[in-house]
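user: can you give me the structure for this one chain? tokens are fine.
assistant: on it. calling the predictor now.
[tool input]
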Amino acid sequence: MSSTTSDVIVVGAGLAGLVAAAEVADAGKTVLLLDQEGEQNLGGQAFWSLGGLFLIDSPEQRRLGIHDSHALAVSDWHHTAGFDRPEDYWPRQWAQAYLDFAAGEKRSWLHAQVVRFFPAVGWAERGGQGAGGPGNSVPRFHIVWGSGPGMVEPFERRVREHALAGRLRFGFRHRVRDLSVVNGRVEGVHGDVLEPSDVARGERSSRVVVGEFDFTAGAVILTSGGIGGNPDLVRRNWPTERLGPPPAFMVTGVPAHVDGHLQLAAQDAGAHLINPDRMWHYTEGLRNWNPIWPNHGIRVLPGPSSLWLSPSGERLPFPHYPGFDTLGTLQHITRQGYPHTWFLLNRAIIKKEFALSGSEQNPDWTHRDVRATLGRMGRQVQGPVQAFMDHGEDFVVRSSLPELVRGMNELIGDGQVDLATVEREVRERDAQLHNPAGKDTQLALIRAARALPSERLTRVTKPAPILDPESGPLIAVRMNILTRKTLGGLETDLQGRVLTPGGAVMPGLYAAGEVAGFGGGGMHGYRALEGTFLGGCLFSGRVAGRAVAGAL
């Protein structure tokens, strides 16, 4: 058995772990950074992300004529989060602290580390249910130039510089099983050394044990992520009273090693795990035609123009439009027991509005290719989207509506999609375009969005008939529920210290990132405003790292 001592052990080498480790080492403390995966997975889930960050009243917003403010963002956050439990005390405090950060030094802190942003600002979680409903009142989704890898780079660089200086050591392929607790204080971790693995980033790695370890430290920071890669745990935590039964089939938005084990291990050691039923799963998941991890799903980042249909072809009711209210639409779908839903659109809509989440699905942004990025403005469908149209098993592409519906039924195999129903829905929608106004709420929201230059130029296509032959072919996309984020987690105070069920500090133990619900045990409440997951890892990792360094 191997053993060693350091000032701080950080468990998990994702974004929150990198930030926390860098902050601790910046203060001159020694750090042992452990991860069950190999070095090729450094950066964790952040590497795979689109690199979206929530900022408030940024220069990018102001240049686009978007009027944002701290007060407006606070209002949006609380209307969206829906905090309603006694245990939401610390999540509320973390939400307020994060909003202050997002409106304050977040951008300048990142800018000083050479993080740059794409000039267009996205409008995620548009709401649509009124000023007092959930959602962003304005676009706040800022994409890092370089996407997820561009977000990881500065913190990986800082950590590697500390490793060269001897202040930090890596422990890859070290799977922590348990915390070492002595007289109520966490004094280290122990677990298994796994055999080396050279599988590609994200692929399932070997679990063959070749040794054990027992490491001690002045403090432990858990940054081990969520539960999205563990379908059994997702189903165990599923809130059936709110959402109905969990879907029989879901695609998986994160690799298999995102299994939630350390969240449960910390709970067994005496930590308080709160809000486990609050999860953030998407309604627009595709089976990846070129999978990396088991049951690999890709999320569509939809513009607002596609018709969203039930399995039989009825249009989903207001306000369940693409990109407006993820949790509300998830609740509608799962309570109805739908095994899937459909987007119905055409080439003109998919070309402008059908972005795919993830660094690997956006090579132009990931590789900082200006020419390729400008190519998005042309007539051609983006290469990654075209690849899904050509190879994705959830896509049906046809030249006429009867052929499209026939293809949809052939794909599912049950004949449930009704041509007359689909044709009625499409023609009634298209008839609302004969005048500059109309009573279709989705079209009204689209017209309002196009008042913003960034939406009009880069994200939302001009309203036009779906059946216009010039905009063809017609496309139907089967949408699946996709597991992704854990909104609940280990309860922490504003220093990142893990708390016990009685509210006392658990000495020696800190947590940051998704394992802590991105702060406090769930700073998002029930819903996220998007761009706040990477930001939550940055903020909570920074807080925990600085607090630990100051306490030792």
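assistant: here you go. DSSP finds 20 helices and 21 strands in the chain. The domain at 5-225+487-551 is CATH 3.50.50.60 (FAD/NAD(P)-binding domain).
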